[in-house]
Design goal:
two-stranded antiparallel sheet; alpha+beta; Glucose Permease (Domain IIA); Membrane-bound Lytic Murein Transglycosylase D, Chain A; 247 residues; 4 helices; elongated; 13 strands
Length: 247
């Protein structure tokens, strides 16, 4: 028959071992994976699909990075790690474009005004169709199959954004899918350009802009971790890598 003292000692040792195992810290996938990540705080009505679309990543990558098994278990205020790609590449510095096109003065003190874009700031005329809409760092590249539909250009809050090409303002308003304050320009050749996450507008739907005229100002509206311009190009409705058509 086992000694009563031995049994008590054995039970105590097992209990201590179980406590240590339970209390042992776990290592998240983020600590094991050597890639740049952003922290996103879950907002009301957020879905993993919308968050993933805003960053141009898959839902699965967010699930894996955060050890989430139930995609419907998001809680407002919860912090999520999201993979980020392609930091540190500079877009060309652009300078004001001289133009003889008539312009309408834009009152910067009136943040609510949405009229025709004013002075031609931030764009440079090149021998090809497009100009850079803003200067800054390319923080995320175009990815095939809709994984990231354009490029992200990180720069300071309130930096002027200009029309990459002359065209009509097809849309100017807030987009709830993640783009935030959004302007879409349609161009005579059937192409279109998209300018997202703006802090405020300088145009409204129906306006016509010459290349290099003011569209709005850089911001972080919608799904964004900081001030940047998300810029897309479509040719005949098909997504195109902006870097393949920008000078």
């Amino acid at each position: 028959m086992l000694n009563r003292g031995f049994v008590c000692a054995l039970c105590g040792a097992l209990l201590l071992a179980a406590t240590l195992i339970y209390a042992a810290p776990t290592v998240s996938h983020a600590a094991q994976i050597d890639l740049p990540v952003a922290t996103y705080v879950v907002q009301r009505n957020d879905t993993l699909k919308a968050i993933a679309a805003g960053y141009g990543v898959s839902v699965g990558s967010i699930l894996a990075l955060n050890d989430i098994t139930d995609p419907d278990s998001l809680v407002v205020g919860q912090e999520l790690l999201v993979p980020r790609w392609g930091f540190g590449v500079s877009a060309p510095v652009v300078t004001p474009m001289p133009t003889d096109a008539p312009t309408t003065a834009y009152d910067e003190a009136d943040s609510e005004r949405k009229g025709s874009g004013a002075s031609s700031r931030g764009g440079t005329r090149f021998d090809i169709d497009l100009v850079w809409p803003v200067s800054g760092q390319i923080s995320q590249y175009f990815m095939e199959e809709g994984r990231h539909k354009g490029i992200d250009i990180s720069t300071g809050q309130g930096t002027p954004v200009v029309a990459a090409k002359s065209g009509d303002v097809q849309f100017a308003g807030f987009d709830y899918s993640g783009y935030g304050n959004l302007v879409i320009l349609s161009h005579p050749d059937g192409s279109s350009t998209l300018y997202a996450h703006l802090s405020r507008f300088a145009v409204e739907a129906g306006d016509y802009l010459e290349q290099g005229q003011l569209v709005g100002y850089v911001g972080s509206t919608g799904i964004a971790t900081g001030p940047h311009l998300h810029f897309e190009v479509r040719q005949s409705g098909r997504l195109t890598d902006p870097l393949s058509v920008l000078p």
